[in-house]
UniProtKB/TrEMBL annotation:
Residue intervals of the PEGA domain: 45-108
Recorded superkingdom: Bacteria
InterPro entries: 6-blade_b-propeller_TolB-like (IPR011042), Carb-bd-like_fold (IPR013784), PEGA (IPR013229)
Name of the featured protein: PEGA domain-containing protein
Lineage, opening ranks: Bacteria, Candidatus Beckwithiibacteriota
Molecular-function GO terms, alphabetical: carbohydrate binding
Length: 405
């Protein structure tokens, strides 16, 4: 028997290796054999990830897998639900495209969150710092007079949430009534300007160092320098906003500059804003990204409405009518919005966390709280509310932490 020519063997080997390589590449891109077409069909990848892990993944109402897992799916739109006992379910319509990866990036919030007191002697007029790491508030109901005054609560990461005690940074006297002073944080969150007895003949302005105790005996009235201090702070704030706005597409720079209100996410790829005028945003202000958000967007913007513009993906999402919200701000993970609705009885309301595209609006707290005050913890695992939960007594409200992990 004659042996096959070497060249034939080489050609066959080349064809086998080439075919195997092509099939491997196709397989890595998500192509799978189709019984219907009897050919390779392009699929997309669904990365069903969640925090916390171990949640059930339902695709078109069928239990399919658990997080964290990656699934090959034919291109199309799917109803994806991620659920875990003790947590509010997450649902979204996701578009799967061939050769692309779509991630859920699901954050599940407890259905019954834990409410823990942070202060015990009252907290008056809490004011968050610009860096989102601190809150200053006044105490007037302490057991000893020297314990009354201003306190700073640090919101930085702790192993078990907000477990550090507030720090007293100054006391209060009849001359320096800091309990009712108008407080303003410096742009760098290192100082607090206290305006005492506003509009009266004994009006006083003092600068407080938030990092230490400020002795009243050492107070210096900065009223004479107040215009310079305010001008310097305004310049610093304007410079920070200008630097962030300058990263936006030219048209969005104009929108942000003319907006009634703006707030950049902690990781500033997203802008929360209320436009000052009606305008249509053209498509593709920046080059589109593959596997970008497939959620419905709104590019016809109108005043008195709240929108989020995603700079990374050039997507613009309608969130709500400004009139329907008492408060809206970024949650500390930059992927969620914290919204306050006050449509319940007096001193009660709902706190809602929604994804930045307006989907998955989840009520994480419904009950009494004061002054529409709700603020996220720095690590995204909790939020603070000001509430009076002592049965209608005359005691002042306290700060409470709602644990969301």
């Amino acid at each position: 028997m004659r042996r096959p020519p070497r060249i034939l063997i080489a050609v066959l080997a080349f064809l086998v290796i080439s075919t195997s390589t092509i099939l491997t590449i196709k397989f890595a891109k998500g192509y799978r054999p189709s019984l219907k077409t009897k050919a390779l069909q392009g699929t997309g990848l669904l990365a069903a990830n969640s925090y916390p892990r171990g949640a059930s993944v339902f695709i078109n109402d069928k239990l399919t897998t658990a997080t964290d897992d990656t699934l090959n799916l034919p291109p199309g739109e799917y109803r994806v639900k991620i659920a875990k006992d003790g947590y509010i379910p997450w649902e979204k319509n996701l578009k799967i495209e061939a050769e692309l990866v779509t991630q859920t990036n699901t954050r599940l919030f407890p259905a019954v969150p834990t409410l823990t007191p942070v202060t015990f002697s009252g907290a008056l007029n809490p004011l968050p710092a610009p860096d989102g790491q601190k809150i200053v508030f006044a105490v007037e109901n302490a057991t000893a007079d020297e314990k009354n005054g201003l306190y700073v609560l640090d919101l930085t990461d702790r192993p078990f949430g907000l477990n550090t005690d507030p720090r007293q940074i100054t006391g209060t006297t009849a001359k320096y009534d800091l309990l009712h002073a108008q407080l303003t944080w410096s742009p760098d969150s290192t100082q607090i300007l206290a305006l005492i007895n506003e509009g009266e003949v004994n009006e006083t302005n003092v600068l407080l160092d938030q990092s230490r105790f400020n002795d009243i005996a050492e107070f210096n009235d900065v009223t004479a320098r107040l215009p310079l201090i305010e001008a310097d702070w305004q310049e610093v704030t304007a410079k920070k906003n200008h630097e962030k706005i300058a990263e936006l597409p030219e048209l969005m720079q104009q929108v942000a500059t003319a907006a009634a209100a703006i707030a950049f996410a902690p990781e500033p790829e997203k802008l929360l804003y209320i436009p000052g005028e009606e305008l249509t945003l053209p498509s593709d202000l920046i080059p589109p990204l593959p596997a970008s958000s497939s959620q419905d967007e709104q590019r016809q913007i109108k005043p008195k409405n709240v929108y989020v513009y995603d700079l990374e993906e050039d997507k613009n999402f309608w969130i709500a009518s400004a009139a329907d919200l008492a408060e809206i701000q970024w949650y500390s993970d930059s992927r969620h919005l914290l919204m306050v609705e006050d449509n319940l009885p007096a001193q009660a309301g709902k706190i809602i966390l929604a994804e930045y595209d307006g989907t998955n609006r989840q009520t994480v707290y419904a009950g009494p709280f004061v002054g529409e005050f709700a603020y996220p913890g720095a690590n995204g695992s909790s939020l603070l509310i000001l509430a009076s939960l002592n049965g209608g007594s005359a005691l002042p409200p306290n700060l409470y932490s709602i644990i969301l992990k």
